Amino acid sequence: xAHIFKVKTTKPIPSDAxxxxxxxxxxxxxxxxxxxxxxxxxDCGTRFTQESRKWYVQYRNARGCWQRVAGYxxxxxxxxxxxxxxxxxxxxxxxxxxxxxxxxxxxxIEHLTSFQRYLESKGNSSKHVDHTCRRVERVLAxxxxxxxxxxxxxxxxxxxxxxxxxxxxxxxxSNHYLNAMKEFCQWMVRDGYVPSSPLVHLHSLNAExxxxxxxxxxxxxxxxxxxFSNCMNR
Length: 234
Prior knowledge:
The protein is an alpha+beta fold. Helix content is 44%, strand content 18%. Helix 3 packs antiparallel against helix 4, helix 4 packs across helix 6 (171-190) and helix 5 (153-165) packs antiparallel against helix 6 (171-190). The radius of gyration is 29 Å and the shape is flat.
């Protein structure tokens, strides 16, 4: 059965704090937000104990594992959350719920943080990790994607097309953005957050059609200047 609680932590007693006795126990008197509070001194005598502002829920999920979830400052609201989490776990166990509900509802920007850690754990260079995550983040912002249900292949293609039309990016860079988003979505599938990727069928464009600088052979005078410059720099 789920239960709710507040997390207790200890902190060092400030050197200027006042220690008071109450019912045979030691307490520390502190000033916070303009008001005086009294907190119990820990058994060690050098630290005081305080409770978290929020309540927390501990319950067994659909796999039977204990899971802790942050609740609210309001105890009753947290108790309702605990009951809801238990009902959801029971529905999943009976095959009535959506096993991907949490992954779909979690903000994509939070998934991106986990995706970054995944890329780093694979031993990718910091440059690759940074470029990939920055591209995904720009797509999320440009397409206004908040959660999984917002991701649409047509919307992504439309945004990339507009970026190319306005010359903000070329075809090659457009492909980089597409591949970064596809990798991000495939990671979410592999990690069990979502059932399938809506971008799996998309393909890169032909970057050879986007020639920014036309290559040509050097003229005789240009070649002579290049050779002379190289000789002078040796």
